[in-house]
């Protein structure tokens, strides 16, 4: 199946080459509050019912490392809630692997909304005309979902290990399956499977997150994230075995500092 070269997709890819350099320079934790009205309240007519809308400034979160060994009792006592969820998301790990790390990242604020820990900016103006797009950072081991330039969801991932790297660049969501068995190992059952590269078998799906790149080139996700993306992203449209319409664009970018 030959990939159709579309000027629109080439333009999209060029656009992202320009955006990626500035992507992580934006600090979502220090976003400036936006005001609906800047007029002095005292100067407004008293008989007009005008509401001032102010976007709240996200809290500035600081982080530090703690020894897993020294905090073992506290970690074992945690039940699923704001604290445990924050620790899992920040360390790109699932609950079964949390105690396997020698140290973990801990925030000074435990919030019930993981958006305050996002490595992605809340808005990317260059994406305003793009209805849906999925960004995946190899370096940050995380994904960001954007709709018309606004971040609507983010979460942790585990991408390909050093010997089986996840391909970077512009991909797309092709076809999907609620459950797929790997052709490499029949014991690998991949739920909420969405193919990203048909010939190489690269996909995103639910699987274990150990806190570092460990996959066989796929994009591993939490169950809730894999399920959400399964229904959010669009599949390709084929015409006699040729791609007539691509699925949702996916950009996998930068590199992971293996060995550091």
Find the structural class using helix and strand composition: alpha+beta
Q: Main beta sheet, described?
A: 5 strands, mixed
Helix content: 10-25%
Stretches with pLDDT under 50, minimum 5 residues: 1-10, 21-44
- Global geometry: globular
How many DSSP H or I helices?
Answer: 4
Largest sheet strand order:
5-4-3-13-6
Radius of gyration: 21 Å
**Beta-strand level of the residues, as a percent range?**
25-35%
Order of helices and strands: HEHHEEEEEEEEEHEEE
Query: How many strands appear in the DSSP assignment?
Result: 13
End-to-end distance, in Å? 39 Å
Rounded average pLDDT: 84
Description:
With 260 residues, the chain is α+β, with helices and mostly antiparallel strands. The chain is 16% helix and 26% strand. The chain has 4 helices and 13 strands. The chain has helices at residues 7-23, 72-77, 82-90, 223-232, and strands spanning 63-67, 103-107, 133-137, 142-147, 150-156, 169-172, 176-181, 189-197, 202-206, 219-221, 237-239, 242-245, 249-253. A 5-stranded mixed β-sheet has the order 5-4-3-13-6, with helices on one face. The radius of gyration is 21 Å and the shape is globular.
List key phrases describing it.
about 260 residues, alpha+beta, five-stranded mixed beta sheet, four-stranded mixed beta sheet, 13 strands, disordered N terminus
Give the SSE map.
Blueprint: H1 7-23, E1 63-67, H2 72-77, H3 82-90, E2 103-107, E3 133-137, E4 142-147, E5 150-156, E6 169-172, E7 176-181, E8 189-197, E9 202-206, E10 219-221, H4 223-232, E11 237-239, E12 242-245, E13 249-253
Parallel strand pairs: 3-13, 9-10
Antiparallel strand pairs: 1-2, 3-4, 4-5, 6-13, 7-8, 8-9, 11-12
